[in-house]
Amino acid sequence: MSNRQSKGNRQSEGSPRPTGNRRQVIPLDLGPDSYDITVSYGLRERLGDELSSWNNGQRWVVLSQPQILQHYQGVVDGLQNSGINLGVIEVPGDESAKNIAVAEKVWSEMVEMGCDRSSILLALGGGVVGDLGGFVAATYMRGITIIQVPTTLLAMIDSAIGGKTAVNLAAGKNLVGAIHQPGAVIIDPGFLATLPRRNVVSSLAEAVKYGFIRDRSIFDIFESRFEQLLELRDQALLTEIIVKSCRIKSRIVANDQFENGERRLLNYGHTIGHAFETLRDYGGLYHGEAVLFGMKCANYISHKKGLLSSQQYLSAQAVLDRFPLPELGQLSPQQVLDVVQHDKKNVNGKLNFILLEGIGNAVVSTDVSSDDIVDSLSVVNR
Asked: Long-range contacts of range 16-19, CB-CB < 8 Å, 24 or more positions apart?
């Protein structure tokens, strides 16, 4: 039976530019694991109605973080008032939540709440909550339904879509996990109004990624309307970026659910970026910030190998340089190489590294050497 409960109002690939308030539904077709990504302002106020077709009296759990519940306790209250039998589990408000010990704590609390195989876990939060929640749902009683309600732009356009779930190990990021598709992804861009500026900057990293790997028009928006995007005030512009990004992610996942080919392109900027996160012990550096640094490195290598022209390389780096980023600090090249060696994108001893053959056209390369990686650090270690 398909995860998709409601067909909604679908748009074709040739749909006109979206407006801010129109409800849009993007299907992700995965056969029996298909589901819809719904995008509209105001969905959080209507969440009980949106989820009514899922509610059969079973036990539900909202997984979230204290700072999110502080802002959006009304969302939880609305779900309870709509007749959903709901419990709440809070996890730490940072990357430390993506830990096997935290997952075990959540499993135990779910048992105490009386959750069974019919229960539904609702992940209300950013990428950390979504990743942890997906992992918990994939493994609790061998798998229960999860519904993703992302509250950050990064989660809305990337981590909540596609079923990747994971926790971290000391040796590296996302090394333990599973592919477990959600039953639905419900996106209300209105959640973004409460995000601190630094979180917005981090979140926009995944949006500009789509411009680099697949859709030049997204890159052009960043080039011409960067400050407007940072302000998040233009509903139509923000919705356009979210919908375009979701469509790209959904098409790629539909073509390659288990990352055997095309889906690897989504790792652009992530290989070295994950190394930076690991070396900073998942603290002091947001995921999107690490990925932005990683994109700079990937672009340098692409240019060095003659895949990215000088003009496009300078244009690409100029856009990335507009993102206000913290000091990365001096990192030992050998430390970076040691972490990259354990990256899960290594297959049969070869690293699948994502490079650009022009802006909007990413490729998988197995020809990136240790020297290439060390040389690329010159663009961030300064």
From this structure: 17/236, 17/240, 18/236, 18/239, 18/240, 18/243, 19/235, 19/236, 19/239
- Within its chain, how far is the Cα of 349 from the centroid? 27
pLDDT score for 344: 60
By CB atoms closer than 10 A (0-12, 13-18, 19+), residue 241 is buried
Task: Give pLDDT tens digits for 126-146.
Answer: 999 999 999 999 999 999 999
DSSP 281: T
For residue 347, what pLDDT is reported?
Answer: 63
Question: What Å distances lie between residue 238 and 77, 127, 375, CA to CA?
Answer: 27, 19, 36
Q: What are phi and psi of 53, to 5 degrees?
A: -70, -15
Helix intervals (H) in 151-286: 153-154, 197-213, 216-224, 226-231, 235-255, 270-279
What pLDDT digit, counting tens, does each position of 287-342 carry?
999 999 999 999 999 999 999 999 999 999 999 999 999 999 888 999 999 999 88
C-alpha R_g of the chain = 20
Pairing of strands 184-187, 145-150: parallel
Residue in this structure with the two tokens 């106020």, named with its chain if needed: 45
Which residues form the catalytic set?
A: 142, 164, 206, 249, 259, 263, 267, 270, 274, 287
Q: If you average pLDDT over each of 170-179, 192-201, 355-364, which comes out highest? A: 355-364
Query: Helix (H, G, I), strand (E, B), or coil: what is residue 297?
Result: helix
Distant-in-sequence, close-in-space partners of 260: CB < 8 Å, separation ≥ 6:
none
What kind and span of H or E run contains 380?
A: none
Q: Which residues of 138-157 are buried (b: 16+ CB within 10 A; e: fewer)?
A: bbbeeebbbbbbbbbbbbbb
The full set of domains in the chain, from first to last, is: 24-191 (3.40.50.1970), 197-231+268-379 (1.20.1090.10)
Alpha carbon 132 to chain centroid, angstroms: 12
How do strand 350-351 and strand 346-347 relate by DSSP bridges? Answer: antiparallel
Q: Would you state the pLDDT for residue 329?
A: 82
pTM: 0.91
